[in-house]
Amino acid sequence: GELGEGSFSRVALARLRETGEEYALKIMLKRHLIRENKEGYVKLERDVMDSLDHPGVVRLAFTFQDQENLYMGLEACQGDLQRQLARLRRAGRRMSVRDVRWYLAEVVEALAHVHARGVCHRDLKPENLLFDASGHLKLTDFGSCRDVSMGCSSGADAGGQQAADAVADEDEDSPKGRRWSFVGTPEYMPPEVVRIDSDANAADNPYAVDNWALGVMLYQMLVGERPFQAPTEYLVWQKVAAMEWEMPEDGSVPQDAADLINRLMDPNPATRAGLDDVRAHAFFSGVEWGAGLWDRGDAPERLPADESECARTAKSP
């Protein structure tokens, strides 16, 4: 069955005949990749996932191809964090502070592993955080990542302005010449990206894009909605560029969490909080950092799919 669909791929549940093991099979149409100049993205995604070995990162098990498609066999998971947040909202509930801290500690630890290997994810959001069978989170979708250590971003030219290059791809091989295309999801993009602000150079903090998105996620998990919302992507970009957001005063965000959100959503990437700052922050007091987080047996209870979600799934092709 179909598990999802991306901008240039689809994901289906597949089972190996020899072992019966299930995998999420990412299927990418070759002619579409060539037409959209995405071959470099796929190669970097494969190479990066091959290099990552962590319980908080979805495992790449195998790759192969045929005449029409490229295939990636990924560790099968059980839904994403965004669906869980949506179910809570439809039920008129918010995630507890305890559960937010529990989940976000795993996101921080997985992200630290990725950053330590010189990779910036560049599309951190709840949709790209999947649940394993035990209720732990795993980071996935490295199709927009940037290899900071090699100075390349998903196959794009590495010679552009560093601030924009953190999340905007400069394609000098395009038949139309130089062009810029935003990488990421507007609601989780930092202001220096939306403004393509070369004065807010992120050279001293190459992972600032991911750290900003972490702050947006912390806000969303506590409040139940994103800090930047608008009917169109353009209006979202305008709000982000102008830093038009407010911290709720209804008690949904504890003081220590509010402080961490403000530090992660610092409009200046050079002074934005890093993951070492996050680990040492009061919000995460008492957390025992390390891969042992995935050994915890007290995962938060998740809401099952509700009727509206089941109806949408039944109508999808």
Describe the structure.
The chain is 33% helix and 15% strand. The protein folds into 2 domains: 2-75, 2-Layer Sandwich (Phosphorylase Kinase, domain 1); 81-295, Transferase(Phosphotransferase) domain 1 (Transferase(Phosphotransferase), domain 1, Orthogonal Bundle). By secondary structure, the protein is α+β, with helices and mostly antiparallel strands. It is built from 11 helices and 11 strands. The strands form 4 sheets. It has a 5-stranded antiparallel sheet. The longest helix is centred in the middle third of the chain and has 20 residues, at 97-116. GO terms for molecular function: ATP binding; protein serine/threonine kinase activity. Belongs to the protein kinase superfamily. AGC Ser/Thr protein kinase family. PDPK1 subfamily. It catalyses: L-threonyl-[protein] + ATP = O-phospho-L-threonyl-[protein] + ADP + H(+); L-seryl-[protein] + ATP = O-phospho-L-seryl-[protein] + ADP + H(+). Residues 1-284 form the Protein kinase domain.
